Amino acid sequence: MKDFGKEALDFIKDIVIIVFIVLVIRTYFIMPFKINGASMDESYYDKEFIIVDRFSYTDFPLLWQHREMQRGDVVIFKPWVSEDRKYFIKRIIGLPGETLKIADGQVFIQDSSWEFQEIEEGAYLTDENNKSTYVNRSTDENIYEIPAGKYFVMWDNRTHSTDSRNCFKKCNSGRGNYIVQAEVTGKVLLDLGYFNIKSFSFTHPSTGESTLPKFFGTLDEYSY
Fold it and tell me: Is 187 within 8 Å of 57 (Cβ atoms)?
C-alpha cells in the first residue's frame, strides 16, 4: 500500500497534468461561450452555448499556418468598446481590399469589373432582416473601402444591433469600422443549444423558439 505522501504527490501531479491539458486546449483549440443577447437571431439565440474553434485561426510554426477568415464565418472577437461586453459574435461579410456598398436595404460587393454585385443573404437572415440592412436606419447609400488586413462584420439581426456599419457605436472614440484577425478568438464550430431546465426542453424561456443543438450541421459558409 502506498503511503499518504506518495498518494498525495501522485494526486497533485494528476491535477497539474489535467490543468495543463485544459489550458492548452482552451488556448489553442476550442473554447466554450454563452451567447448574450439577440444580435444573431435566428442563427444563434440568446443563452445558447457554443464551442469556438481557435485552432483554425492559430499559427503553429513549421507545423500549421492559420486559415484566413472567409466570408460567412461567424466569429467571436474582442471589440474593445465596452468593459461590460468583452466579446462580440458577428458574421464576416466584407474581406480585405474589397469595396462594400449598402443601399436600398441590400449589401453589395464590387467585383473585378468594378460592378457591384448583391450578396444573397437569405440563407441566414430572417424575413424581417433580409434586404433590411441600413446604416443608422437611414436609406442613404453607404460605401466602405475595406483596408488590407481588415474585415467588415455584421450581426444577422440587422435591424436590432450595431456592427461595422457604425464602428460598433464607438466611431468618436477611435474605434474603426473594421476588425483584424488578431482581435478574433475563433470561429463558431458547434452550437450546443440551450436546455431549459424549467420546461425540461430545448426551448427559449422568453421567445419559445426551439434551441436544439445544431452541432456540425451549423452552416458557416455560403455561396455569394
Answer: yes
Q: What's the CA gap between 119 and 109, in Å, rounded? A: 7
Amino acid at 31: M
For every residue of 57-123, DSSP letters joined together read: T--BTTTBPPPPP-TT-EEEE--SS-SS---EEEEEEE-TT-EEEEETTEEEEE-TTS-EEE---TT
State pTM to two decimals.
0.84
Tell me the HSE value of 157 on the side-chain side, using a 13 A CA sphere. 14
For this structure, is 39 an active site residue?
yes
User: What residues does each domain of the chain span?
Assistant: 30-217
90 is an active site residue? yes
**Cα–Cα dist 169/153, whole Å:** 14
List beta partners, residue 5.
Answer: none
CATH class of 30-217: mainly beta
- Of 2, 6, 34, 39, the active-site residue reads 39
Mean pLDDT of 132-137: 91
Annotated catalytic residue, options 90, 101, 150, 187: 90
Question: Is residue 52 within a helix (H) or strand (E), and if so which, with residue range?
Answer: strand 49-53
- pLDDT tens string 41-98: 888 999 999 999 988 887 766 666 677 899 999 999 988 877 777 899 999 999 999 9
Query: Cα-flanking dihedrals φ and ψ of residue 43, to 5°?
Result: -70, -45
86, with CB counted inside 10 A (0-12, 13-18, 19+), is: exposed
